[in-house]
Design a protein that fits this description.
single chain; 422 residues; mainly alpha; Growth Hormone, Chain: A; 2 domains; 0% strand; globular
Length: 422
Amino acid sequence: MRQLPVLWAQRDFRWLFLSQAISTTGDRLVMVALALLVTERTGSTTDLGLVIGAQTAALVVFLLIGGAWADRLPRHRIMVSTDLVRCLLHAGLAVLIFADGLQLWHLIAIEVVFGAAEAFFRPAYSGLVPQTVPEELIQEANALNSATVTIAEFLGPAIATGLVLTAGTGTAFAVDAGTFLVSALLLTLVRPRARGAAVAAGSSLLREIADGYREVRARPWVWVTILVFSFKLLVGFGPYLVLGPAVAAGRYDDAALYGWVVVAVGVGTFAGALVALRWRPLHPLRAAMLVTLPFSLLLLAFAFGAPLALVLVLGTVAGAGSTLFSVWWETALAQRIPPGTLSRVTAYDWMGSLALLPLGFVLVGVLAEQLSATTVMAVGGVLSALLVVPGLLPRQTRELRRLEEQPAAATPAPLVEIERVP
């Protein structure tokens, strides 16, 4: 916790942190409001799937373009623009709800544009964080941001439920629009430091996207990790999210117990963020792969009906491992990827992570009907654990060492660096 005042003293990070704390809460708020809105209007899970699928598809399709623009233009300005676009979209949606003129095609069209705007925002944000803190505080900045996301996971749905029940879904979307406006205003106060060389003038967009691919392809520790986690999300997160209530009902005779598992994972993610403020393993990516194993154990224990107390403990440990992986991975990218291509590389990371997930949601449901929810979850737990093996195959992944310090100029670090002993 002693690291927090040091981070808070960084003026630009402080404004960035506050902006994202507010807008992330709005994001989590709108996830619940969206589900309640569709349920209220049509009562169709198919319609909800169309809306969410359209937003996710737009996000995936535009990520590489968003990453290229984020390396080409000032990242904080891109974030301001996308916040304003999303503010207008959800303000317009709120107006349609209040006027009782909302139709399904309106909602799909709005969420498609929303997903496209988010595709520009995410790579810009990943590249901007290292520009708001000294090099030696990058991990701490990522850890504190992860803690904020976890808090938003709890606050957002609670606020959304309260707003929908008391003031209606239109008010919920209006509040979300307000969070984006506040976020944009705070981001205008950010003055990020220069970090790395700018994209060459006159370079084409396709060439910049191809350059980002070459940066990924040249580093086995990057592309193998992205590929492995595409499948880990497919076989692990898909069953956890889709089949959790069914497994709880089948094994514990109460579907609502899945909510306690989700809470345990949430508590763990917050604890993991606090741990990441301080813990710097000698081999961060090797440790990052290993700390994902408790999530596989959680799936197996839940599927086989282990005592609920054990499941909740595993959920807490799994949540902590998930956050530690995220923080160490994002820190490694920020420290090792040339700053001028960081947003493009993170765009490939986001795209790889999300590409198979919609397919996974569909397959999990189909397989559960043919087999059983518990069988699919158990198999997913085994497969997600086995995927750690190919994740550790690249020598670079196993041998990449932590960096204690980096110069302010942010020259890309070598792959293996001798540890500096205090």
